[in-house]
Specification:
With about 180 residues, the protein is an all-alpha fold. It has one domain.
Amino acid sequence: MSPSLSDTPALSRRGLLKFSLGASAFLATAGLGASLSGCSSSIPANGFATLRSGDLLFLRALVPVMLEGAVAAEKMPAAVDGTLKTLDNGLNHLSPEMLKLTRQLFDVLGMAVTRGPLTGIWGSWENASADEIRHFLDRWENSSLNLLRMGHSSLLQLVMMAWYSRAESWVHCGYPGPPAV
């Protein structure tokens, strides 16, 4: 007699490894597919050195959610634009290999075929609510897949480093600014 579903563990260690391997293969294939199909154009958006138009679509939705509480609502558009410019400058100074990895992350987030299953954002980023984006960030932060946790960490670090390197962010955290020399 075979055991019932309630008698077997929900996911064994072997099952988790198989799932993780499959998910990693899926992400690698999707990234490679995007690169080969031309979905991941390397042409920067107008006014940017590194960020592409597709990157800006999801970053303009993501950054306001990440800056919530640190920026007043009326100052948010300027803060987002400034953060994106600073982020672009930072990406422009990355090593080619690090930039390639960052672009792969942005490609996975930008392509509809990978965005839906991995983020829960099935429509376009422009139409995603702040709650949907918070849920996506929480989902990646607490994922059992190391790859998604690393993606969350990368997004968080990129955006926060870009924001907190700007003088307008210093007042919120009590930093008086660098000493005058």
